[in-house]
Amino acid sequence: MVRKFARLGWQAVGPIYRAPTKLSLRIDAKRKESRCVLEQGAVLYPAARVSNNQPREAIRFGANTRVLARFETMGHGGRIIVGRDCFIGEDSYIWSAASVTIGDRVLISHGVNIHDHNSHSLSAAGRHAHFKAIFFEGGHPKVLENVPSAPVVIEDDAWIGFGATVLRGVTIGRGAVVGAQSVVTKDVAPFDIVVGNPARVVGRSGE
C-alpha cells in the first residue's frame, strides 16, 4: 500500500491525509463563530479562542478585523466590542466582567493582557470559594461578590505593544502607543507614548 501511494505521489494522496485536519478546523471555526458576532470581513484565525459565557452579541468584531487572540466573558457578566480594521495578536488575552471597548484601527500585538476586573476576591476564603464553584460545583458563578471591575476603553488608532498589560478602569486615548511589556494602571491621554511598570509618559506619537 505504501509503495502504491508513493507511485501516486503526494499531490494525489495528500488531500486524503489532510481532510480530517481541514474538517476539524472548519468545525472549530463554526463553533467560535457561534459564540460571537462577526461583521463583514472579520476573521477569526485558528489560533483565536472565544469563550463567551454571555449572550452571543456580548462579543462583537467589527468589519475587516483580524483576530488571533483569546476573548472571554465571565459567568457573572462581561462584554467585548472590537471596532473595524483592528489586529489582535496571538497569545493575547482579553477577559471581561464589565466591558472592554476597542475602537477602530487599533493594533494589539501578541502576548497582551487586557482585564477589566480583578479576577478574584482579595479574601483568601473568597478565592477558595470561587475555585470550588468553577471546578466542583457547576462552573463560574452567576454572581461574584467582592471582585471589583471597571470598563476598559481603547480608542481609535491606538497601538499596544507586545507583552503589555492593561488593567481595569483604564482608558487609552486615540492614537496613543503603549510600549512592549508595559503595565497600564492609569488613563493614557490621546497620542501619548507610555512605557514601563507602571507605565509613564515618554513622548508623543503622530496622527
TrEMBL record:
SUPFAM superfamilies: Trimeric LpxA-like enzymes (SSF51161). The keyword Transcription regulation does not apply. One of its GO terms (molecular function) is acyltransferase activity. Pfam families: Hexapep (PF00132), Hexapep_2 (PF14602). CDD domains: LbH_MAT_like. Keywords: Acyltransferase, Repeat, Transferase. Belongs to the transferase hexapeptide repeat family. This is Acyltransferase. It comes from Sphingomonas arantia.
